[in-house]
Design goal:
Oligomer: homodimer
Distance between the termini of chain A: 31 Å
CATH topology of the largest domain in chain A: Cytidine Deaminase, domain 2
Shape of chain A: globular
CATH class of the largest domain in chain A: Alpha Beta
Structural class of chain A: alpha/beta
Number of domains of chain A: 2
Number of helices of chain A: 10
Strand content of chain A: 15-25%
Helix content of chain A: 25-40%
Chain lengths: ~280, ~280
C-alpha cells in the first residue's frame, strides 16, 4: 500500500524511461487502486506495459502529450527511469515541443540538475504537479542500517567515509553521484556514463592499487547531489549494481540514507548475501 | 641554462621514478655543470642513467641512502617521476627505512598530498632541502598562451572552463588532477590510475554523449591540486597525453598556467600540430 491514495484524487501519469522503476510504480498504482497511465515513448518501448493503461507519444509532440494526460485526468506526473539524451526530429515538433526543445538546448550544457529542473518547471507551468517516485512508493528508500548478513569492516567503514566525502564534493559540482574507494585510494569516480560503467572501469584498472593484501577490498558509495531536485533523478541501485560491485572485487556497497532508491530490494539483498557483499544504508554523519 | 647554479653550492640528488622528468633534470645538471647524482632504485631501473653519476639503492635502505647522498655532497634533493606504491620487504628495512615506513603507513590512507608531504618532512628533518623540478628547470612550465597552430574554439573555451571548475573541486578533495568535458558533459574524471587511463576510459565510453554533432569534441584539462606541495607531484603532460587525447576524440588539451609541466615540449607541440589538436596554457580566471 503506497502513500499515493491519500494525497490526491487526480490520476498519475508515469512518464517512463528505461529500467525497473516505471514498472514498479505502475504496479503500485494498479495494486492500490489509484488512477494512472503509463506514458510510453516510441523510442523507449516498454515490454511490461501491456497490462497497464498506456499513453503512447513521441518526444517531439509535447503539446499532444499534455492534452492526452489532461484527457486521462492525470494532473500529477512522475518522471522516472533512465532517458538518454534522445535525438529530436525538428520537423515533427509541435508548439509545446518546440518550446521545451529551446529550454533544453539552453540548459543542457549546465549539467543534469539544471536540465531536470527546467523540465520540472516546464510541466508545472503547464498545470501539472510533479511528484517523486519515492513519494508515490516510499518503500523504495530503505531506513539506515546494514541490510545484508555481511557487515562492513572497520576498513570498509573508513573507505565508505572517504568515498562519501568525495561524492559530496562531486555532487556540489553537479557531476556524479558515486565513487569507489579502497584502502583510502579513489579507484573510480562517476561521470556522465553512470555507476555501472564506473564499476567496469574499476574492475579493469584496479590492479596494483591495493597495497595491503589483507586491507579493505573497496566500497562503492552512492548519494544524491546536494542541490538536486529530489523529484527526479534520485540515484538508484539494484541487483546489477551488486553484481558489478562484486565483479570489481569490492567488499560492498554503501548508500546515503534517505537519498538512494533500492529497486527489487529482496532480490538485491539476497544476491548480495549470495555474493558475500555488504549493503549498508549509511546514516549521514 | 637552468636556475640551479645560482641557488646553492651543494649537489643535487635526483630521486628518480619512472618517466622522462628525472632524465631531463640530470641532463640539465650535466649541461649546466652543477654537481648532482641520480638515485636509482633497484626496482625502477633507469636505462638512460649510464652517462650520469648514480647512487644505487633500494626502498628499504633509507638510512643507507641518506649516508650515500651526504657522502656525495648532495644535500638538496628533488623527488621526480612516477612511483607506484611499491611493496616493501620488512626484513630488509634499516632504522631510517623503518621510521619512514611507519610514517607512510600512517599517511597513505589520507590521499597523495598527505603522503608526499610526509616524505618531504622526513627528508627535511634529516637535513636535506627538498626542491621542485620546475625550480631546478624553470622552462618546464610554459607561459600562458596557445602553443599550437589550432586555437580553442568558443565551445572548447566553454568546456575547458567547466573542466577547470570540476578539477578545482576534485583537487580540494585531494583526488585527481584532470577531467574531460565535452559539450558541457563530464566525460571523465581522474582517479588514482592517472590521466592516460582516464583518456582510455573516455575513448571507450563517450559514444552517444556528444548531442550536437557540430559542437565541441571535448577538452582535457589538467591542474595541480590547490593544497598540494609544489615540490613534488606537479602534474605533467607530454607527447603521450596528446596522442591519447587525440585517440579519445578530443579537440585539445588545456593546462593550468603556472602549475603543469610540459615534458619534451617541442615534440609535444609538434605532435599536437600534426594531429590538429590545440594545446592551451590557460590563465587562471
Amino acid at each position: 500500500m503506497g502513500a499515493s491514495g491519500d494525497h490526491s484524487k487526480t490520476g498519475l501519469a508515469i512518464i517512463a524511461g528505461h529500467g525497473d522503476l516505471p514498472r514498479l510504480l505502475a504496479e503500485e498504482c494498479q495494486a492500490s487502486g489509484r488512477k494512472y497511465a503509463v506514458v510510453e515513448f516510441e523510442n523507449i518501448p516498454l515490454v511490461w506495459a501491456s497490462t497497464h493503461p498506456v499513453i503512447p507519444t513521441i518526444f517531439e509532440k509535447t503539446g499532444q502529450l499534455i492534452s492526452q494526460m489532461q484527457d486521462a485526468d492525470c494532473l500529477e506526473i512522475v518522471i522516472v527511469g533512465a532517458m538518454n539524451r534522445e535525438s529530436i526530429d525538428p520537423s515533427k515538433l509541435d508548439d509545446k515541443g518546440r518550446e521545451l526543445a529551446i529550454i533544453l538546448s539552453e540548459t543542457m550544457k549546465g549539467g543534469d540538475d539544471e536540465t531536470l529542473s527546467s523540465i520540472i518547471r516546464f510541466f508545472e507551468t503547464n498545470g501539472f504537479r510533479v511528484r517523486a517516485a519515492h513519494d508515490v512508493l516510499p518503500s523504495l528508500i530503505p531506513q539506515a542500517g546494514v541490510l545484508t548478513n555481511i557487515k562492513p569492516s572497520d576498513d570498509d567503514i573508513f573507505d565508505a567515509s572517504r568515498a562519501a566525502e568525495i561524492v559530496t564534493g562531486l555532487g556540489r559540482l553537479d557531476v556524479g553521484q558515486g565513487a569507489v574507494v579502497g584502502q583510502g585510494l579513489c579507484l573510480g569516480l562517476e561521470s556522465i556514463q553512470g555507476t555501472d560503467t564506473m564499476l567496469e572501469f574499476v574492475k579493469n584498472n584496479r590492479e596494483g592499487y591495493a597495497p595491503n593484501p589483507t586491507g579493505g577490498r573497496g566500497v562503492l558509495f552512492k548519494a544524491p547531489k546536494p542541490a538536486q531536485d529530489f523529484r527526479v533523478d534520485l540515484p538508484t541501485i539494484g541487483p546489477d549494481t551488486i553484481r558489478n560491485a562484486h565483479d570489481a572485487g569490492l567488499s560492498g556497497v554503501a548508500i546515503d540514507a534517505g537519498g538512494v532508491m533500492v529497486l527489487r530490494r529482496s532480490e538485491t539483498v539476497s544476491l548480495a548475501n549470495d555474493l558475500e557483499l555488504f549493503l549498508w544504508v549509511r546514516p549521514k554523519e
